[in-house]
Amino acid sequence: MARSNYLFTSESVSEGHPDKVCDRISDEIVDLIYKEARKTGIDPWTVRIAAETLATTNRVVIAGEVRVPATLMKKDKNGNDVINPSRFRSAARRAIRDIGYEQDGFHWKTARIDVLLHSQSADIAQGVDNAADRQGDEGAGDQGIMFGYACNETPDLMPAPIYYSHQILRLLADARKKGDGDAASLGPDSKSQVTVRYVDGKPFEVTQIVLSTQHLDDSWDSHKVRAVVEPYIREALGDLPIAEDCNWFINPTGKFVIGGPDGDAGLTGRKIIVDTYGGAAPHGGGAFSGKDTTKVDRSAAYMARYLAKNIVAAKLADRCTIQFSYAIGVAQPLSICLDFHETGKISEEQVEDIIRQLVDLSPTGIRRHLDLNKPIYAKTAAYGHFGRKSGRDGSFSWEKTDLVKPLKQAVRTKTTNGARAAANAV
Description:
By secondary structure, the chain is of the alpha+beta class. It has helices at 18-40, 85-99, 122-129, 131-135, 160-178, 222-237, 272-275, 296-313, 348-358, 363-370, 404-425, and strands at 6-13, 48-56, 59-67, 73-75, 81-83, 102-103, 106-107, 112-119, 144-151, 186-199, 202-215, 242-250, 266-267, 319-326, 335-339.
């Protein structure tokens, strides 16, 4: 049986964390290519992107393989078509400026940006594209396992520790960018961590709060930082009580002036637990940022979240974990596994059958159902890919609960048919 009384902790990192800077740049590359495809009339279904970013002191390196419109290409000295780096450099600079980096060791205007993107491997293209000729749908861009999760602990059906860890950093970032009093002197780089006490399986109170945030005023110490950030932390936690004996660790090492890639190198894809469920659910290991949605690391994880959230929203279970597995070049998942953690109102096997009836789980089906061939990914790069509000531009479509009614109807039909079959057997 699952434990009902326990402590659980999750962390988040801000948009200015070195790894998140890299995630943001990689996803800006994704958006740039989708925008250019739309503008030039290129079929967005043909776009392919796998962009990785490294950042360190006043240096950014963007590498990977892409299939892009001709407007993003140029001729080299030998007359060969190669990637034109200028638009990609501009996208990276805009991202760094928006995050807020204008410090000596990392500045949007002066950082050196190397673009080492090249055209997609013909072998990978064969596995993905040619699969459509054999089975009617494009094949998965790689093998792997993906997980989705939802629970009824928060309004957005996310685990409480990661939900509140994100909320703290989003409020602080908003205050910093708005120039809200002393918060204007905070820097872009920060990390949060929240420990929640669960009683009878439900979030009861916060017992530990950890926050480390960059600050631009060299005279500040940890006491000053706490005085600045504590009101935002309390606002972020909302109705979740803070224990009387809660431990607060605010900038526990003291000053934090040098931050971002100048303080520590960053890489795309190193914050996959922050991006998902804060450790409350399994992770298949694949990162999201910098990838187009033929890559099932991204698209299938979005679909798994979508299905898990709709199952919980439909009150078929209080908690739901979904696993998919795929093989490169094969369209449909090799396996589907649901776990309701002993909270289900119907069996997992029945819902697995219903899912296959309601949703096409091939990469083509997922991209079509969630409308993923759009420039909507830069905003996913910080504060989690899940538990967000779906936007009018199509962003976070996997957070919609528009499958609740079809799920309930399918369950009613299956239950009715099962009862009739049992009666006929008698």
